[in-house]
Amino acid sequence: MDYDVIVYCHGTKETGLGHFSRCFNIALALKDMGASLAFYGQFDEFAKARIAQSGFVLTSHYSFTSHPVILCDDYNFRQKELKLLHDAGAKLIAIDDFDQYNFDFIKRIVNFRYKAATLCHATNRHLLDLSYFPFHPDLESVRTQNLNNSEKRQKVNTILLFIGAHDRHAVARRLLKALDNLVNAKQIVLVAGKQLKFDCKNNQLKQLSFVDDMAQLYRQADMVISGGGLTKYEAGFCLLPNAAISQTKEQQLDTEILAESKLCYDLGLAPAIEQTELENRLSLFLSDEFKHQFEKQKSAFHIDSTRHLAQKILEVRDE
């Protein structure tokens, strides 16, 4: 069967679900705009279930007779592989956080990171900045809720810790230890790949593995602390105060740029920051800094960004 768009990404516990999540959000927008599409790649049962429940096809092969758009999202593609897809007739679009796929045969290069133009060699093929941030449609209601609830912005009862599949530097345990020293009588919700044995003495701890409904977690949260990836963008879109302890140098650079504009609070680079300094930074964020992000978030993120990106993808289809 021929498709307008083939989404080429992976979503497993080994790869993490970040690439799949943002591709899935784009796929929902493309579907609403009438495009036919399929997913191709390696997926665990969680990702397969989301694909099936949303009415998408998971394919193990694809045809080039209709010259489909292939939306590629992974850090480990090789130029040779992508060139073969192009030469076979595909129109390639790459989601590219680090400008590693800036090849002349790529039709569009998507980098929705804040101030992305400062991080790449921009061309007329680039789609840059938060104008193209792909969020799940359920997050729009969370944003509206927080936009209309000024009281919630001043009081923190529930803190969401989202670390993701790969906790390379024991970030979850370090954050739990710091929070339990700094706050009392809060609900702390930890989402991580592995359950931790941790005794919270001053707060209530709830642990979750990957969840199907992130919007519900954001809806319940008053504050988000993440491991440095996509979550800080989703929290910003939802107008939630957020901080990040980055696990890679690339994530740290991104966090620093966001922090300069009060869109995120920088807790440091996990392998480099000492526990005492982490607690000091977290204490500052909890005491006052978290109150300064709302207005910046409100103006930086756009409710039509996912649809805007989907339209650009379909323009390539029609070329």
From TrEMBL:
Signal peptide range in chain numbering: none
Record-annotated Glycosyl transferase family 28 C-terminal domain positions: 158-229
Highest taxon of the lineage: Bacteria
GO molecular function per UniProt: hexosyltransferase activity
Family matches, as Pfam families: Glyco_tran_28_C
Protein name as annotated: Glycosyl transferase family 28 C-terminal domain-containing protein
Species in which this protein is naturally found: Pseudoalteromonas piratica
Organism placement in taxonomy: Bacteria, Pseudomonadati, Pseudomonadota, Gammaproteobacteria, Alteromonadales
